[in-house]
Amino acid sequence: MIENLSRRNFLTRGSAAVSAVWLSAHWPAIVAAAEHAHQAAKSSAPPKFQFFTPEEGAEIDAIAARIIPSDETPGAREAGIVYFIDRGLTTFAVDDQKTYREGLPALQARVRELFPSVEKFSIATPDQQDQILHSLDDQAGPAPRRRSASTSNSFFQAVRIHTIVGFLIDPDSAGNRDGVGWKVIGREPEHMFQPPFGYYDKDYAGWQPNPPSAEKTKA
Amino acid sequence: MKLDLPKYKTSDEVDFVIVGSGAAGGIMAKELSESGFRVVVLEQGPYLTEADFVHDEVKVIGGDLLTNKPKLQPTSFRKTPNEKAKPQRALVYGRLVGGTSVHFTANFWRFHEIDFVERSKVGPVPGADLRDWPITYADLEPYYTKVEWEIGVSGLAGASPFDPPRSKPYPMPPLPVKGSGVIFERAARKLGWHPFPAPMAILSQSRPGRSACINCGFCLAFGCEVGAKSSSLATAIRMAEKTGRCEIRPNSYVHRIEMDSNGRVTGAVYFDEQRNTHLQKAKAVVVCANGAETPRLLLLSANKQFPNGLANSSDIVGKYLMLNSGGVTTAVFEHPLNDYKGFAVSRLLHDFYELDPQKVGFYGGGGIDARFDATPIAFAMGGLPPGTPGWGKAFKDTLAHNFTRTMELFCHGTSLAVENNSFSLDPDLKDAWGLPALCLTYKDHPDDLKLWAWQNQRASELLDAAGALKKWSQPIGEQQFAVHLLGTCRMGNDPKTSVINSDHRTHDVKNLFLCDGSSLVTSGRGQPTMTIEALAFRAADRITALAKRGEIT
User: Fold this and answer.
1) B380–A75: do the CB atoms touch at under 8 Å?
2) Is the interface score ipTM higher than 0.90?
3) What per-residue confidence (pLDDT) applies to A25?
């Protein structure tokens, strides 16, 4: 929906537009956070958090890893999302500090409520983790496009949006490490292409004229 | 080549000051300077060139690199004039030399004959002020041809049976077909419709100093690094500078037009980058600042003689705003289209350009195109089918599967002129320079929404015929964000119901001219830039003739 900033029916995409505005307002800081995540994920030394404690960082990392899981293809963890968010909370998402500060203990409480024997989110099993997150995802229902900055005051929505942005931002502008996010969605990294572009145009026989006569009004 | 560019003193009374350097302003500058006049173009945005354009959505879109700056230029919105407007991002336009033509999609359809005479053909529409233009398609045809040849439009003449008459073919063939275009073409023909190669202001063949399109995929919202997109920046502005008589003065924010006691404008007052104020003197002023900023400038220039705004004796400056209706239906196909490669649109159809109100039950008409223009984050948040989880493995899998397999049908349509729909000055909100901010008031006419729904139905039929695995339409709703800025200083013969005459001269002030989207009387079917540029070529001809006959000063 970033694209919608310049599309004439901006709001036909519902509150996606709100997310676009939010992203737009915070982009410069998002870039800085992405660079940080990039470096942190690359570095062999244990990276340092600026906002999170190591324990909090482990919890956020575990949440991000359920939002975009690693399987046959890389996920949030490989893209260094926790560092992107950590830097973000001192820059572009500074307004969300409270959300995270209050959200983490609430998460802890929810973990104990649902699974009394489990000490914290990051050591729960993936199935347990998904159950916990579903219980937080008060925006249950379809349409990720209905979710937006306006709902990200909820802790889980904030982590969700931050994770997606960090995963898919343009690798040339220092985003998702090694462009893993783009690889996952099949977006080739080049910036110059020749047709045919895909399956449907590869056997196109060339333009054939329309029949000469046509009624002006079809309806 | 190093150009010998003039530098006029503000005290030097030039022949013309042009406010704005976009689709209309660029052509106005080219035509008037090529006619021998001394011209200063005042542009509020920076003078960027191809070297400044990058494929970095973070900088370009996120940083509002090419567009108006919401933080410096806040705006407000309300549905009706009785409400108090709320601060809200309400519009987007290009804010740099070349204006919106730098970052647009570059769909370049001509208007058809019907667009100019619709009131006579379909009669009045309740709740709207539908009017005929004072000029016809035939008057504008030579100038459409000028745009195609001088600015550079690719396309195939005669490919659409609904096309209006033309005096010349396109100067170059259409761009290559995309996967979305092939799917669209095959399905539309199954239904008996008439798809055709989209006319685009993007080069399919190189021109001196400009490359043909390299299909980079960063088109809408971006500036073209290879000059393939036929923006005013890549075309008319350079031609104007070549004359040696035209000065492009960027970072110059015009906020007042001065008038003398004889009722003639004397020049334009602007802030430079350091916010110092200057008055550039001129024999005549041409405002090409777009359908939002042109009426705003007139309203900001209220004076003793025109207390409601300069050239606003009709009290309709800013009113009758039309945004065009538009619906998006998205579809997923079995195999990868990779439609993120290339420009946005390769096929469209005009079978529904002229609908019969007696048959469909509403006024309007439109065009439907096949496209894909979503960037990855946008796609993840707004491009997945309804019902897709917002996170987890199913989210990731759907995202990974659909990004290369998705396309959209974009339905473009008419908007009716409604008096309450307007750009006005917000009574409280101020911009960073302390001037009243733009307030958007808008509520779509019911017929515009009916057309939107009707066209979405056609889009669904087409996607069914195409064998889409899945399809869904974005919800239809009243608009509160403006991109097409049309009709706010409309053209007409009657000074009571229009702001400019068919020469683009304001009815009230002899040496003040307006030319941009604000001049339009009807909205067309959703692609106004081609017509704005044709109007600019024509207006420049008229203004030149008036000036040479000594009828301006």
Assistant:
1) no
2) yes
3) 46
